[in-house]
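S1.2 Input.
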Amino acid sequence: MVPDHQIMSEEEVQQLYSLYNITSEQLPKIYHDDPAVKVIGAKVGDVIRIVRTSHTAGRAESYRLVIKRPKK
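S1.3 Output.
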């Protein structure tokens, strides 16, 4: 039920930033202790590609920056 999560290479991340003319601060965030992030071994600062199947588009990709959860 969980969509495919992949750690992007530095080259892929730079292409993403260039394609959309964005910086890492503009990406949606995902916490380092998220179960899907832990399973793939991502670290704080990594960019994750999430691939979902879509009824309208067939395949939908989204991106998240891994961040540390703030302490309470």
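S1.4 Remarks. Helices lie at 10-20, 35-40.
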